[in-house]
Amino acid sequence: MKKICFLIPDGVGIRNYLYSGVLSELRDQNIEVHIWHSLDEEVIAQSERITGFRPYSHQLKVFTEDAVTQILRESVSYARLKYNIQLTENSTLMLNWSFGNPSFQKRLLIKMSEFLGTSMRSYDSILSVEGILWKKLRGTASYKYSLQKLKEIGPDILFCTHQRMPGASAAMLAAQDLGILTSTAIFSWDNLPKARLAMRTDYYFVWSDYMKEELSFYYPEIPNERILVTGTPQFDFYSDPNLIQSREEFAAQFGLDPKKNWICFSGDDVKTSPFDHDYLRNVAESLQKLENVQIIFRQVPVEGTSRYDEILKTYPQIIHINPFWKKGQYWQQFFPYPQDLGHLVNLAYHCDTVINLGSTMALDFAFFDKPALYLNYDHYPDQDWTVKDIYRFQHFKSMENLDPVGWINSKEEIREKVEAAISTPSKIGKDRKLWLERIVQPAEGNPSYRRISDFFSHAISKQNVKA
């Protein structure tokens, strides 16, 4: 029996793989599907309701890395960030070297990683230290556990749903040493410059030709033929007409007025946008006299609303709709319910525009040819965080030579830009479809989930022929 195992180290892979058509397509091609994970059992039940079957499920044991392994890994990341800054001449990449409020022991580890990373003065030296890291991982309990588990499952392919998770590295190495084909997906459009490719696999799935060029640019040692343009399943849902509700039905569900123009304010996490609540206040103040406009607020799913509560109380005309997510204590414990997929689709379909700070939601709205408005101003003089850094991030280089979004450069521009997005949407971010094509590269009639499942099917057949 042909087998594939999905290694799902955190909640990031749920929407794209457990809720998409990938698993059903593989089952229809007589491939036995296994998932190796540390997810809540409720997630598996939700997936079964969507796909109509329950894959074989294996619990993923998580190991704590020893200090030497962590120093090797972090030093490589630090060295790659410095190397990528030289490649791109973009100093904002170093903002990714951030650890919140670390303990004394963690601070010591960071300093040692910086010292070792600084000593890697050439790309060959970075590759050499990575080689030491892979060798070190092969001596860990995580590697030995992975060998045993993979022998038990016996897959033809091991696919990791997220390229950033260090805990998955040993499993991918164990699979390669057992002769199992390995692959991973680059999760987001901003991931590659951040020097967090935690594993090496036989194949890499990327969203577009643009991202394929990026992967080759930052990791020239990866053969070009091993990088596959598959799109990403998270955008397949926008092509499913069964998810779209009527305007009246959507309005009735959330207490909206179907006759008004709906404006979506999409919140960011506190690290990306620490003054996000001030932006929401500005939007509410600027639009409160527009009787034909209703603001819908959706916060980032992994955070609550405490910093917005005062604004929501002051401006009851803001309709707050919570994301349909299960909250957890740790990032790995957060996950979306299937209902959230349809909710996002309907927001993009029915709202006239989305306002936020550099969010991917601009791409979601572009699927329905709706303009996005990016906030582009600071609130206070000499504030530590500045919006100027945000739009210098490397992934926004994808906008070059395009007019993909509208820009709100001050509070005073909010009303004017919103009214323009409603009345003349074709004039706001007129190249949004071109930007979407550049980053996501959707293929009409050939959704991402099918491109991915077809690759797996063909790869497994080749493996079995060789065997």
Automatic annotation (TrEMBL):
InterPro entries in alphabetical order: TagF_C
Protein name according to UniProt: UDP-N-acetylglucosamine:LPS N-acetylglucosamine transferase
SUPFAM superfamilies: UDP-Glycosyltransferase/glycogen phosphorylase (SSF53756)
Origin species: Algoriphagus boseongensis
